[in-house]
Every structure is written in C-alpha cells, then in structure tokens.
TrEMBL record:
The keyword Transmembrane applies. Keywords: Cell membrane, Membrane, Sugar transport, Transmembrane, Transmembrane helix, Transport. GO terms for biological process: transmembrane transport. GO terms for cellular component: plasma membrane. InterPro entries: BP-dep_ABC_trans_perm, MetI-like, MetI-like_sf. Belongs to the binding-protein-dependent transport system permease family. This is Multiple sugar transport system permease protein. It comes from Petrotoga sibirica.
Length: 272
C-alpha cells in the first residue's frame, strides 16, 4: 500500500515537473508580449508596467494580417483535403485485400519520415515549372504531402477495429460502398477524425520550412512573417512575443474545444 502511494506521488511530482518545463516558455512569451522592448531584458523579469503597445504595432502591420490570413486558409484547406483523402485511403487499406497492401501502407509511413528539407527544393522546382510558386495552392499541396500520410496512419487502427459485421449488415440492407463509408464508418471513427483534424491543423499552422522556400511575398504565412521580426540589426522582441502569443490562440482554442474527444480518440480504435 505504501509502495503504491509512493509511486503515485512520484508520478504526480514528475508530471508537475514536466508540466512546468513545458509551460515555462509559453509563460515567458505571453509575459514578454505585455512588456516594452527595454523591459524584456531587465534584471527583474517581473518588474514592468503592462502595455499593449506591442500588440497595437503587430495589428497595424499589413504583412502580419496577410500572414495570419494565409496561415488560416492553408491550414483549414490542407487539413480538410488531407482528412478526406487520408480517410478514404485508410478505409481502403484496412478493408480491401490486395497485393502489396502492407508495402503500400509502410510507404506512406516512410514518406512521413523523410525530412522536409530534403523535399523542399524538389517541391520548389516542381511548383516553379507549374508557375505556382508564391501561391497558396502550392502551399496547400505541400502541406498535404505530410498531412495525408499522418491521417492514414492515425485512422488505420480505427477503421481496422470496426467489426466486419457492421459492414456486411449495411451491404445486405442495400448500402453501396460509398454509403458504407460515409454513413457507417465515418461516424464510428469520429474520435480518430478529431485527433487527426487537431494535429494536422496544428502541423499546418506551425509549418515554417515549406512556407519559407515556396513563398516570397503574397503567400507568406504567419511563421515566416514573424521570423522577419528578428530584423537585420536588432530583433523586435516585443512584437515577436506579441505575434507569438497570437499564434498560440488558435492552438489553445482548438485543443480546449476538442479536449474531451482528443483524450478518447488518442486511446485508439473503436470500442465494439
């Protein structure tokens, strides 16, 4: 009994330490967003008069507004397309038996492991030949290249765990494959879809490298624009912190909104 309690206290203690380490940078960025540049590097980090000057300057910049708009469009569209394509591919891989099915499944996993830097130049050359550089379409397709394999592998255990009897009963009742997929499987794998939606959106929202290589002015996303605050001679620390805090808001909102489904979905599979 004593051992169990000791183990529980140890787990709680380690969890608190991990939580503090994870939250510390977030607390710093939020606190600095309410400081003047001169106060950010002062000896006492808590001695400052809160101000919204950095936020006002950020919201007055057209490039930041454009970057946030581009980030939102690219994240929403690439997530939506990736979910549809990834869910259909995952369904096919889990339900249909054909040659090289396993090899095909692992090829998606391997493609997800390729470093982005290795693909950024080939993608740039491909989109350049198509006349799509510095466009949102190019970014959406680039993001789909890493989002679709992720969606497939997240949803595979969910589709595989749906009992075959559900599918057979629906087919006997007159449903075709299309109806089985949309009306039977999609509601059953809902928790997995929520997990895939949240993480693919966050991956697109935070993506930096493809946006840096594939855009120059019109299609710049927020991370690239904010990186410009580092400046040639002196970083704009206050504006950097304010813009970083603004970038956190959609992530917090989505995570909190879907918290219940995320916890259930990350358990994996459908409870039959």
């Amino acid at each position: 009994m004593k051992k169990k309690k000791l183990k529980m206290y140890l787990i709680i203690f380690i969890s608190i330490i991990i939580l503090i380490v994870e939250l510390f940078p977030i607390a710093i960025i939020i606190m600095n967003s309410f400081k003047k540049d001169i106060d950010i590097w002062s000896a006492n980090p808590f001695s400052f008069k809160p101000t919204l000057d950095s936020y006002k300057k950020v919201f007055q910049r057209k490039d930041v507004m454009l970057g946030l708009r581009n980030s939102l469009i690219v994240s929403i569209l690439s997530t939506s397309f990736s979910l549809v394509v990834g869910a259909m591919a995952s369904y096919a891989l889990s339900r249909f038996k054909f040659r090289y099915r396993k090899a095909l499944s692992y090829s998606f996993l391997i493609s997800r492991m390729i470093p982005q830097i290795s693909l950024s130049i080939p993608l740039f050359m491909m989109f350049r030949s198509l006349g799509l550089t510095d466009t949102l379409i190019a970014l959406i397709f680039a993001h789909m290249s890493f989002n679709i394999p992720y969606v497939i592998w997240v949803l595979l255990p969910f589709f595989s765990s749906v009992p075959i009897e559900y599918e057979e009963a629906a087919l006997v009742d007159g449903c075709n494959r299309k109806k089985v997929f949309w009306k039977i499987f999609i509601p059953l794998v809902g928790p997995g879809l929520v997990v895939a939606t949240v993480f693919t959106f966050m991956m697109s929202w935070n993506e930096f490298l493809y946006a840096l290589v594939l855009t120059s002015s019109n299609a710049k996303t927020a991370p690239v624009v904010i990186n410009g605050f580092m400046g040639q001679y002196a970083p704009l620390w206050g504006q950097l912190a304010a813009a970083g805090t603004i970038m956190l808001i959609p992530v917090f909102v989505i995570t909190l909104a879907f918290q219940r489904y995320l916890i259930g979905g990350m358990g994996g599979g459908v409870k039959g």
